[in-house]
UniProtKB/TrEMBL annotation:
Gene3D superfamilies: 3.90.1150.140, Uncharacterised protein PF07075, DUF1343. Residues 231-398 form the Peptidoglycan beta-N-acetylmuramidase NamZ C-terminal domain. It comes from Sphingomonas plantiphila. This is DUF1343 domain-containing protein. Residues 23-226 form the Peptidoglycan beta-N-acetylmuramidase NamZ N-terminal domain. Pfam families: NamZ_C, NamZ_N.
Amino acid sequence: MEFGIDRLLADPALLGHLKGRRVALLAHPASVTADLTHSLDALVAAGLNVSAVFGPQHGVRGDLQDNMMESPDYTDPTYGMPVFSLYGEVRRPTGQSMHTFDVVLIDLQDLGCRIYTYVTTLLYMLEAAAAHGKEVWVLDRPNPAGRPVEGLTLLPGWESFVGAGPMPMRHGMTLGEMGAWFIDHFGLDVEYRVIAMQGWEPDAAPGFGWPPERVWINPSPNAANVNMARAYAGTVMLEGTTLSEGRGTTRALELFGAPDIDGKAVIAEMRRIAPEWTAGCTLRDFWFQPTFHKHVGALCNGVFIHAEGAGYDHDAFHPWRLQALGFRAIRSLYPDYALWRDFPYEYEFEKLAIDVINGGPGLREWVDDSAAAPGDLDAAAGADETAWVEARARFLLY
């Protein structure tokens, strides 16, 4: 199959539309061609005038490990063009940076989750392009989590850098498709084009979104593999808790744990409360010791989520419900556990991080309400999921 960057480079007519124009590139380390040439190098080699580069969270180089670590602007050492950070002094492109190009190519590998900030960066670039009369092309890439939709829809007033608009946590779209939805939803007047993939089959085994013939490259430092991408719509919520999500280990965001929980007991309690929410994956209790971040240097016990191998069922796996169930099991076993982390997540000072992540308080309230049943959360999320499936339908390209 071919990604958007590969189709662009192979099509003289498409390249011809860009020749003689100033071209910007929004990219990161996973922005590579089929032969693993970085898109910047490939575009320059194709004879385009790449006049500027933009980098999202974690930087063009992908060198910044943790969340909320800002990247500076700099000059590209090979080609000499300016590199503008969209996760530094600014989150939105400045007027100065927007004057450096005529058309911007967005070539970002996404994870298919609302909170993954490349979605928001896409929206901010579209809004800036509309304001400055610039053209936007998305060089489309797969959604490695596939088409499934899951989670509560972000509520009005809860917009943030991890919540660009009213969509559920797991949106099931590519960035090219999402850009079209943004333009329609927000009424943007911008010249927009998607260079679509060729041969992407999001429902086909064994990748179910990620083509197994393509090499996986981390789009951010802790996005190490497809298992992480599948689990992320649930495990990302751990960032709003005192539990470790595995930062400081080699398998971040595929697990959860802490020094003061019993992994086997948590798994058993999860299966007692809502066994159907544990389907589609294999849960394994294990030990780990983070080398940095939460519980650094402490021996932790926890749960590893294997959304891979013979035990993986793409249709049955629901990572957002699974992680919510993990929280509920811990609350059941340890009623007074200080589960929710209170800090300015993505610079939101007035709201709990878990609520910012979920785009409202609904999930946290369900976890903390001992009288609430799994069906209560299921019903609320189910209504949102059905509405999103209908809303996104006319924007799907594949």
